[in-house]
Amino acid sequence: MLYRLKNDFRLSIITLLGVSAVFGVTPFAILRFIQGNSVAFVVDLLILAGVAVSVNHAWQTGDTRRAGLLMACVASYGAVLVGVLVGDPGLFWLYPCLVTTFFLTHPRMALAINVSAVLLMMLVSDAFRSHEQMWSFAVAAAVVTASAHVFAYRNRSQRRRLEHLATIDPLTGVKNRRSMDYELDMAVATAERTGKPQTLVLLDIDHFKKINDQYGHVLGDDILVDLVTLIDSHTRKYDQLFRFGGEEFVLLLPDVGGEDLDTVMTELQRLLRRRLKCPDGAVTISYGVATLQPGESMESWLTRADDALYQAKEGGRDRIVYADGPPIAAMPASA
User: Which residues form a coiled coil (predicted)?
Assistant: First the structure.
């Protein structure tokens, strides 16, 4: 839980704003109930319900884009309704919403939500005591929106650059181990929710140290890049490859298991054996394969794949070992 909050900026924002909304809105909902303002009380409850749905959706599915958009709409248009119902005191609720929308959704979408919310508030004349107050509110809202838009745009650009540096392996261009931990955690959550198989493949280049020692690290780096290119061009768009460390890589195969998994692995082994080369000839790979078991943790899943890879190495290399069944030796090179 803490790992996801630390590594998913938008999820952390959605969670923080959700908690803030609960503590901020609940006392006013109780007050309006005591005062007998049942309509405002119902609106407050609807706002709290929308916030709760947004936070739950973000945590359950990992889809922070839709969850953020929903929370932005609930907060902004909910604030408009509160302003219409209670007048002056409700107007102030829209200001924090005008800022937070830019942290919850894309800047262009946030801008559209803010402009429409302010226009809706202005169209309801009962929300203001005078035209002067209405236009003062509109100018203040425009300044807040413009400032938040500039800040959010710059923050978004800088965050993307930092995330790229923090999660991408600079040599091969694939995601690194830091990113892998998050994606595997999400794969476990997806499997629990959908029941569909998730398979992990650890790949290790055989005798890679010997290649480096004999031909130098430049050639070794070229082989790593070639390996990534070959796997990337012969896997699906939603399969994910990570550099685990050194010459080890992790391939995540969603919705693959059983006989399909055997077919995928056999074709992958055949491809790499045929296309991955060094001056001495073919470069071979050892594979450890594990399909996620019901209720299994990410750590256990990864350990079983690593144990299978160790068996492949100890068994002579250039072979596939499945953690969930009898080891399957590599096919002859002529196959």
Answer: none
Element containing residue 214 per DSSP (H, E)? helix 208-215
CATH number at 187 reads 3.30.70.270
Amino acid sitting at position 63: D
How confident is the model over 55-105, as pLDDT tens digits?
999 998 888 999 999 999 999 999 888 888 877 777 788 888 888 898 888
- Catalytic: 248? no
Q: Which helix (H) or strand (E) holds 49?
A: helix 38-61
Q: Is 126 buried (19+), middle (13-18) or exposed (0-12) by CB count in 10 A?
A: exposed
Could you give the count of Cα atoms lying within 13 Å of 274 in the half-sphere of its Cβ?
11
C-alpha 304/C-alpha 99 separation (Å) is 46
SS3 assignment, position 252: strand
Q: pLDDT of 261-281, one tens digit each?
A: 999 999 999 999 999 999 888
Catalytic residue among 132, 183, 192, 247: 247
Range(s) of the domain holding residue 226: 177-322
**Is residue 97 domain-resident?**
yes
What is the rounded CA–CA span in Å between residue 307 and residue 288? 7
- Say yes or no: 27 and 131 in one domain: yes
